[in-house]
Structure formats: structure tokens, C-alpha cells
């Protein structure tokens, strides 16, 4: 069990059955009064936030989290299926829990999946991922509009801004943390 | 060498804060010396602090570190010293947050033949002098707002403040155990909106601590807290001088501690036996680290000390 002394930014605990992460924390104590531990917390599944105030002596159940190496297999409707690289077990995750990672998921992509008990609640991608451009307008030589980027669609359907010299079928590197173009894959 | 920008900003703020801290200490000494106070030093390691429900001393091999110099300073009043002040380190176990350090710097001053109204006058004079001496615009800064100690200060009784800002009765809040939560959650945030210092006065008798009950209103104690920009800066009161009553309150505090599963604390017996000789007096404790936060406009107490415990 955790005590109030364990509360700090990043602490993960279970409230009403759901895993929460402490996003901000402060210790307050009015003159001659009791110590109060004020937390803002985020539900790690729904993303909703709440404020809670605790007192000395209260205890919490830590939210046990497990991170597993998995391979993305396929998508069916709003369900994404992954396979554990060690046990070969398959887990299914809702689109909401996959979040922005869905923009960069190609079949057989290796990812890390965060599990709360048996429940997958998040996906961490490699920081950089290669994706092929499926559609972008050609660069018009002599374009004097001064624009230094143009939209491009990649094979997952994700649209981002790329430099004007990028052509269709080219492989580009995307930073998955920002969702932005990073560089072009040479050769 | 390249120092990251955020770290460089912090170093700059800390350098300002350490210079301001030196000025604040100088200003405090100037002010009290001019007012005829004697600066004293008393032992920081003592056999017994005044037992309190929610303050835990840090034990040493045998005795404990002071949580406040009050016991020794009041014993000086008993010996006839009539105006004394002290700047010293105090220690309180497990207190750490953006406004708390387990080891911090305290200013305490005591006057005999005086009451809490005299302390409020001292606060006024001291804060004006510190602001004049330590800031460029003679104002304090909190949450990017200016607080002017030269303008007329705001006074609220605890009951007024609770009715107005927490929309509830202070005594009812004590009964249902929500007093501290409402004070820090509703009342103190409302104080942040004021551009002058605030005196929160006349604490309900249940929260008297070591304060004397009010001469005309026995349901309140002659105790007040000083707030600047919502930050609690000082706690002062007309001192209790009745040894029996004082012993009873210490024992009560220990009973509450026992119910909470905390160790009972030893009583400061020499203080209790000398207390009858204490003239009517008033005393106050002010957090110097927080005062420095206000002179430099720091958000966190971490920014105004040379080292936090985590950096040692």
C-alpha cells in the first residue's frame, strides 16, 4: 500500500477501480492545522481529471502497470489487435485507448503496450517511424509563393506537412512524439 | 558550457533570492533594534517543545530539535526581558511542499505588557520597512500581483472570512472536521485577490493553541494570522499565562496525538513552572523564507534557499 508520503507527480494509484496518475501535487498546512495533500489526478483510461485532498494516515492501492513488447497485427472496426512478443497472446484495444498512435500504426509495427492488470490502456511507439507517402501534389518548379511546406498523406491515412521536394512513393521519417516530418529516407 | 535555459532562469532567480534574503535579514535586525528589541539566541536542541496536535518534532539522540523557539523565549519574558526577537532555524518532521521545508528560518518576537493588537502594529511597521529596504517599488509580489503594505490593511475575523468566502459557519466547519480544508481551499485562495496584507483574527477558542481567550468575547482567542497575497506569513497571539490552563491544553494536544496514533510528546516542565511569573505578553512567529518569496515574487520556497533537502 502507498501512504500520503508516496504522493508525488507521476504516482500511479487505483481509485474506484480505475488507474490514476498524479499530475500535480502540493502539500498544504494552515498555521497550527492539519497537513493536507492536494492532488490533481488523471484517469489513465478515460483521460478525465479530478482533484482530491488527502490527510495523514490515508493509504492507497498502487496501480500495478506492466509494459510489454508487442506487435500490431490488424484493425477491425474500432478494435486494434496486438500480439505479445513473448507469450504470443493476443490483446484487443479500443481506438480511444490507442489514441494518436493510430496515425502511425502499420501491420507488424513493434510497439510497447501498457497493461493495467489484463487491460491494455496505452501504446508507446518508437520515437521515429518510417512511412510511405501515398499522395502529395508535385512541386511546381518556379513556385514563387514562398511556401516552404505542403500537405502529404502517408499509407496510414495520416496527413502532415512535408517539404516541397517530397514526392509520392517516397519513404519519410516521422517523429511520433510530435507527429511531424523529420527527414527523408535516402536511397 | 551550455546551461539549459530553464536551469539558467532558475539560477538567476535563486541568485536574486539569496541577495534579497541577506537584505531581508538585515532589514529585520534594523527594524527591531530601532524599536528597542534585544536580539537573542536560544538552544535549538531542547528536551521538550510545546506539544501540538499537528506538529511533529524531529528527535535527536536524546532530545529534539526545536519546532519553534517559543518555549525558551517565553522563559526570557519570565526573567524580565521585555522585548526580545530571534532569527533561527526550526525543524518540523514531514513538512515539504511549495510553501514548506522541513528545516526553515523563523523570526519570532515577544513583548511583555502587550497584546495581539500591539503585534499587528509591529507587523505593519516591519512589513513596510522590509518592502522599502528590499524591493524597488516598496511592494511585495505574489502570483505576479503587487501587494502594498503601505495601503490600509484588510481585517477579517475568522467567522467573517468563513461566511464570506467559504459560505459556511466557522464553528460548524470545526465540528465536521472541514475547517483546514475550507481555509486552504476557499478562504486562502480568496485572499490572493487582495492587493494589501490581510489580518485574519479572533480564532475560535477551539483553535487557541497557546493563545489567551478574548477578554470580552470568551468564545474566541486573541490569535491572528498575517496573509500577504494569500500566503500565510505569521501567526501571533496574546500569550496564555495561566500554568494550569496551559498544562491542560498540552495534555489535550497529546490526547489528540494518541488518537491519531502519533507518539505523545514530553511536556516542557521548566516552562510550565515559570509561566506564573510571565507578565501579560504577546508573541508571534513569522516565516522568513516566505517573506523572501514575497520580496522576489517566487512561486516556490525552493527558489529562495541555497539548497533544498532533495539537492543535498
Commentary on this structure:
The complex is a heterodimer of chains A (187) and B (312). Chain A has one helix at 95-98, and strands spanning 2-3, 12-15, 18-28, 36-43, 49-55, 59-62, 65-76, 79-84, 90-94, 110-116, 119-124, 128-136, 150-154, 159-162, 171-175, 180-184. By secondary structure, chain A is mostly beta strands. In chain A, the strands form three sheets. Chain A has a six-stranded antiparallel beta sheet with strand order 1-6-2-3-4-5, with no helix packed on it. A five-stranded antiparallel beta sheet of chain A has the order 9-8-7-10-11. In chain A, a hairpin with a 7-residue loop joins β3 (18-28) and β4 (36-43). The model of chain A has no long low-confidence stretch (mean pLDDT 90). By secondary structure, chain B is an alpha+beta fold. Chain B is built from nine helices and twelve strands. Chain B has helices at residues 5-34, 70-78, 116-134, 158-166, 170-175, 179-191, 243-259, 269-274, 288-296, and strands at residues 38-39, 45-46, 64-65, 83-91, 103-112, 140-142, 145-147, 154-157, 198-204, 220-228, 231-238, 281-287. In chain B, a hairpin with a 2-residue loop joins β6 and β7. In chain B, α1 packs across α3 and α1 crosses α9 (288-296). The mean pLDDT of chain B is 95. The chains are: A mainly beta (187), B alpha+beta (312). At the A-B interface, β3 of A face α6 of B.
Amino acid at each position: 500500500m502507498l501512504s500520503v508520503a508516496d504522493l508525488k507527480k507521476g504516482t500511479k494509484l487505483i481509485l474506484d477501480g480505475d488507474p490514476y496518475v498524479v499530475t500535480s501535487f502540493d502539500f498544504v498546512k494552515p498555521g497550527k492545522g492539519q497537513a493536507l495533500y492536494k492532488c490533481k489526478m488523471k484517469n489513465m483510461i478515460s483521460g478525465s481529471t479530478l482533484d482530491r485532498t488527502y490527510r495523514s494516515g490515508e493509504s492507497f492501492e498502487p496501480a500495478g502497470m506492466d509494459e510489454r513488447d508487442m506487435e500490431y497485427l490488424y484493425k477491425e472496426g474500432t478494435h486494434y489487435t496486438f500480439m505479445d512478443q513473448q507469450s504470443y497472446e493476443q490483446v484487443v484495444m479500443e481506438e480511444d485507448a490507442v489514441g494518436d498512435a493510430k496515425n502511425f500504426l502499420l501491420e507488424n509495427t513493434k510497439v510497447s503496450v501498457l497493461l493495467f492488470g489484463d487491460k491494455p490502456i496505452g501504446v508507446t511507439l518508437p520515437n521515429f517511424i518510417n512511412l510511405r507517402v501515398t499522395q502529395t501534389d508535385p512541386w511546381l518548379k518556379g513556385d514563387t509563393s514562398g511556401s516552404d511546406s505542403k500537405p502529404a498523406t502517408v499509407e496510414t491515412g495520416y496527413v502532415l506537412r512535408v517539404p516541397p521536394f517530397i514526392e509520392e512513393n517516397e519513404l519519410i521519417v516521422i517523429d511520433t512524439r510530435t507527429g511531424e516530418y523529420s527527414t527523408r529516407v535516402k536511397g | 558550457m551550455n546551461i539549459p535555459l530553464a536551469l539558467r532562469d532558475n539560477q538567476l532567480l535563486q541568485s536574486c533570492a539569496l541577495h534579497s534574503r541577506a537584505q531581508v535579514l538585515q532589514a529585520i535586525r534594523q527594524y527591531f533594534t530601532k524599536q528597542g528589541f534585544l536580539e537573542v539566541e536560544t538552544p535549538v536542541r531542547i528536551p521538550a517543545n510545546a506539544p501540538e496536535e499537528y506538529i511533529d518534532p524531529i528527535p535527536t539522540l536524546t532530545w529534539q530539535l526545536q519546532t519553534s523557539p517559543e518555549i525558551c523565549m517565553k522563559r526570557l519574558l519570565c526573567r524580565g526581558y521585555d522585548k526580545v526577537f530571534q532569527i533561527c532555524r526550526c525543524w518540523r518532521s514531514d513538512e515539504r511542499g511549495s510553501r514548506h521545508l522541513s528545516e526553515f528560518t523563523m523570526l519570532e518576537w515577544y513583548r511583555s505588557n502587550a497584546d495581539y493588537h500591539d503585534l499587528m502594529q509591529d507587523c505593519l511597521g516591519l512589513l513596510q520597512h522590509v518592502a522599502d529596504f528590499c524591493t524597488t517599488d516598496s511592494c511585495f509580489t505574489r502570483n505576479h500581483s503587487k501587494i502594498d503594505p503601505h495601503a490600509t490593511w484588510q481585517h477579517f475575523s475568522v467567522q467573517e472570512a468563513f461566511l464570506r468566502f467559504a459560505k459556511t459557519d466557522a464553528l460548524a466547519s470545526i465540528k465536521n472536521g472541514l475547517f483546514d480544508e475550507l481555509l486552504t481551499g476557499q478562504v486562502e485562495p480568496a485572499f490572493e485577490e487582495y492587493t494589501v496584507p490581510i489580518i485574519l483574527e479572533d480564532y475560535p477558542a477551539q483553535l487557541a493553541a497557546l493563545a489567551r481567550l478574548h477578554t470580552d468575547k470568551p468564545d474566541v482567542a486573541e490569535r491572528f494570522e498575517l496573509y500577504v497575497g494569500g500566503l500565510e506569513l505569521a501567526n501571533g497571539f496574546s500569550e496564555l499565562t495561566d500554568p494550569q490552563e496551559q498544562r491542560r491544553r498540552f495534555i489535550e494536544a497529546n490526547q489528540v496525538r494518541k488518537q491519531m496514533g502519533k507518539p505523545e510528546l514530553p511536556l516542557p516542565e521548566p516552562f510550565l513552572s515559570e509561566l506564573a511569573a510571565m507578565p501579560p505578553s504577546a508573541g508571534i512567529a513569522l516565516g522568513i523564507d516566505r517573506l523572501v518569496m514575497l520580496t522576489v515574487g517566487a512561486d516556490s520556497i525552493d527558489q529562495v534557499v541555497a539548497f533544498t533537502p532533495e539537492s543535498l
